[in-house]
Design a protein that fits this description.
This protein is of the alpha/beta class. It is 33% helix and 17% strand. Bound molecules: guanosine-5'-triphosphate, magnesium ion (MG) and zinc ion. Magnesium ion binds next to helix 4.
Length: 246
Amino acid sequence: MLSRSTLRGDGEPVVANLSLVVVVFAPLPSPDLFIVDRYLCAASSAGLRALVVLNKVDLIEGMPATELTASFRDAGYPVLHCSTTRGEDLGALREALHEETAVFVGQSGVGKSSLIGALVPQAQLVTGELDRDAEGRHTTTSSRLYDLPGGGQLIDSPGVRDFAPAIDMLEARSLGFPEVDRLGVACRFQDCQHLREPACAVREAAETGSFDARRYESYRRLRRLYAQLREARGPGRNTGGRNQRE
Ligand SMILES: Nc1nc2c(ncn2[C@@H]2O[C@H](COP(=O)(O)OP(=O)(O)OP(=O)(O)O)[C@@H](O)[C@H]2O)c(=O)[nH]1
Ligand SMILES: [Mg+2]
Ligand SMILES: [Zn+2]
């Protein structure tokens, strides 16, 4: 199950009975990679596989698409570079989704519905019924599940402005960052939070560039949010779930 935190720090289910989380971003609207990171954390912590899709590669100017997705590939996530307008990499996407129950998540306007529409002809018919936002653009307002021809199910979900994983689901040591999981075994302290502790292998890797600096900053922001949300829930509340191992 993919879940998120409310502002009060409570966990809330987003979608259940999934096998794969497809995190979509694009050069336009201006990408917020912290949102991508946080969806990946939520997926990893929930034991769900994740796929990163950079869509609208037809709009990229001045740098190779591989540069925009390098940090995710280095973390160990599979990455695809797609364009629904040019039909790019849609075959590879179809293959990756075969027999999966996959939810498409990400910022509004990155092309989640367009990608699903390119793979499921029936979804295009539904797009005609979509609501329009304040600027008159089509936008998805509720989640909807489609059968993928040949096997599998795709779930379209409304775009977000921000996303915070449910804190009870987060792995306390790495917060769902696979790099922190890998690097953290070399930290001096077993309960290292990878912030200001001495001999922290995670921070050192970020300083020398072997751990992507943005991903590390994302980790630090999520660590702060994690502390804030736990604070917001107040004392005496049983945190439940996996955090009890702390
Ligand atoms: N240039 C270009 N435009 C695209 C591509 N894919 C989608 N778009 C356009 O991007 C806009 C938003 O696409 P949607 O599929 O509605 O995006 P969404 O992620 O479902 O948005 P929400 O439902 O609001 O979350 C539409 O105008 C699409 O035509 C692409 O590969 N290249
Ligand atoms: Mg949509
Ligand atoms: Zn550390």
